[in-house]
Amino acid sequence: MLGLALLLPGLAAHAQSSAPAPGNIAPGNEAAARSDTTSSGSAPRSSGGGYIDQTAVKDILKRRARSLDALPEVYYDYYVLDHPNDNSVLARNIFYHELGDGNVKKGEDRAKLVELLNRRLLAHTEMGDTLVVPTEFDLDFRAYSPFPRYYPGARTLPKLFIMHKGVQAWAAYEHGKLTRWGIINTGSDKNPTPSGRFSFNWKQEYRVSTLSPPDEQWEMYWVFNFYHARGMHVHQYEMPTGGPTSHGCVRLVNADAKWIYNWAEPWESSKGPIGPQSAQGRITAPGTPVLVLGENPNGTPKPFEFKRRYPILKRLDLPSAPMSVPAGSPRQPSEHGRSPHLPSLPQTSPTLALGERLPTRPPQTSARSAGSPSSRPRRSTRSRPSPPCRRCGPSGRSPRSGCPASRRGCRPLRSSSPREKCTCRSPRRRSRSAPAESRAPRAPRTRR
Predict the structure, then answer these.
(1) How many CB atoms lie within 10 A of CB 83?
(2) Pairwise CA distance, residues 32 & 248, whole Å
(3) Rounded to a whole number, what is the distance in angstroms from the first to the last CA of the chain?
(4) How far apart are CA 242 and CA 60, in angstroms?
């Protein structure tokens, strides 16, 4: 059980005149509701008039079109609840009848979209309230998005997750293309959600909040952490329509939380991506980038600009370079994609012009003097093969009567008859490094 709150139409009379009943306060929001309630008994800002039926909006969020280009442009109109008898119940029935083109049941299903866009439940409306109604229904939910359908600055990013506190909404992009969007509840003014650039870290399907009171468990589903040091997550929880209301985490409806849990990439850790113990391992790569933009709205979120003739959906301006947004936590990649806690990437070789040669590496010198004997290259001690005797030739035998061993210029190598087999080689060559003047003069040869 996810503990989803269902709204009853009979609570409409108490929507804006009194504080919400204790049963309608989400776990973890009792203290905020008591502190925000004034002495006159007015409703707290975080209540906003009830909670979203997360089961009813599931079908609206999962509708998908063939492509973004196939989605039509949606416009909006005003609708004022009114009835001659001043009966709000009858005024809502007329509204359902008009939305469904004569079918009340169909109008009630379409009214769920109106509630999501207005951040207000029809059961908590009164006579004379004005609603914003789209001109097109039963479309892909991306057709009603305040985020741009295409984000050129995120074209090079495989995935990007954005949360905007001003309109209380999130968006997921793949290579700059809007994949999905939805509504959120960020941290209250006393416990705001930090702004900046983050990354998804570890995730956990079910978790009990560490801030739970002793007599109650605040159960969270589809938890995905994006700031480990401060314990900030996105997760499923009860969704008030009034906007910022949490202790810093970001609340989602169940369908969106489960989709994000399976869509986003966690960090790469030697201890795996599941649970906070993942942070104890060696982090080798960050997860999907996360941007938290904007500031908390003054009151309930207002996604529309109310013009005189018709309302206009506010289109959000996103940063031209998402990775240039200042980092909100220490473990974030730089603007060029390099992370401070990861080893730096090897530098690529420089590009050479036509005809240019690679620079040669300078010779490495030791700490000793460059002119010392130890720093000079050593000459190889391996003996070079000597050429064969000029008289005997390469065959090893003398072309005439043999090779006399006593002949000057040959030395016998084996104790064999010089006339049967020549085993001589040329004499060792003298070093060419020594100059001719340094050679000892040869003694004159005398006859005996």
Answers:
(1) 15
(2) 12
(3) 125
(4) 20
**Judgement on whether residues 126 and 186 belong to the same structural domain of the protein:** no
Residues 6 or more apart in contact with residue 389 via CB below 8 angstroms:
403, 409, 410, 422, 424, 425, 426
- Which residues, 6 or more positions from 114, have their beta carbon under 8 angstroms from its beta carbon? 99, 122, 131, 132, 133, 134
Of 230, 242, 247, nearest to 50 by C-alpha is 242
pLDDT digits (tens, 9 = 90+) for 157-182: 999 999 999 999 999 999 999 999 99
Classified as helix, coil or strand, 29 is coil
Query: Tens digit of pLDDT for each residue in 384-425?
Result: 555 555 555 555 554 444 555 444 445 444 444 444 455 555
Assigned token pair, 227 = 């700031």
Q: Nearest-CA neighbor of 158 among 263, 262, 267, 259?
A: 263
- Radius of gyration over every alpha carbon of the chain, rounded to an integer in angstroms: 42
108 and 192 inside one domain: no
- Going by C-alpha positions, the residue among 127, 126, 186 that lies closest to residue 162 is 186
Among 139, 164, 183, where does a domain finish? 139
Tokens of 238: 């009860």
pTM value surpassing 0.90: no
Q: Is residue 116 part of a domain?
A: yes
Q: How many CB atoms lie within 10 A of CB 410?
A: 21
